[in-house]
Amino acid sequence: MSSDQTVLDTFAADVVRDLCRQPKQLQARYLYDALGSSLFDAICRLPWYRITRAEARLLRGHAREIANALPSRDGGVALVELGCGNGEKLAALLEGIPQNVPVDVHLIDISTDALQATGARIARFENVRTTSHPAAYDEGLRSVQPFLQHRPCTLTLLLGSNIGNFDPPAAQALLRAIRAPLANGALLLLGADLVKSEADLLLAYDDPLGVTAAFNKNLLVRINRELDADFDVTAFDHRAVWNAREQRVEMHLVSRRTHRVRLAAADLSVQFAEGESIWTESSYKYTPLDIGRMGTDGGFRVIRQWIDEEAQFALTLFVAN
Ligand code: AVJ
Are residues 268 and 247 in the same domain? Predict the structure, then answer.
């Protein structure tokens, strides 16, 4: 487990590297400090952001069927979740597993706030034992690996369209890293948002209440606090763009004027031109076939795919083969 200082050093190094890139970027994983996690919870309640509710409907409706697809549950179940958020998704799934089956839950999330919220949310399941891994997915998967040896009955969860933050090569690498330690027969449950109309996509990522704008701009607030920077948050506009060629919604922070920002803790000064943007997130969107193909390339086979027609969201159950 990494110390607070290492975590901060990694954050500083990533921010410096990404703000010196052309075009400027920041990693979406850093959106989730305590306030960012709360703002994301608020996004999930917005009428225009349908992913969370659609997935909850599918999980409630099919939790039993998913649990029954696990090979042999005699020795209990190992459950790994990448990006647990507030724990609601996991709780819906645990409802489908009989209370007499012991479940070893491994939570991987870079946000300690998310790990705490999930721990509290699932405390009522007496058959569940929880281990938290405060880390990015790649590092978290490495620390979970020893727990999965000799555990054929494993279910990995990558829900909420969290995979959408990864560009196709990175998504491929992630699925392979998930697959690597698994025995044949282990399951992967993947929630992924589908391509839909541009108008619906832009409303989901640039909502009329401005919650997503606050979520995006909070990354600058976090950098100010943790890296002793002097970003003028009011000098940036939130922008969501549908990039049809890449099949992704992009979030940007666009500078309203020419100015300079200083990051004291990183000994860096960054120049912004008027209209210059920081690219903070990609949310890739998929066809149902894209999702199947992604899993297949990662070493999995589709068992079932459920689609919420209203929100155009897919939940796909894969088996490692
Ligand atoms: C949690 C990464 C799936 O990309 O839809 C919500 C984050 N960003 N609104 C997404 C998010 C803007 C969300 N994920």
Answer: yes
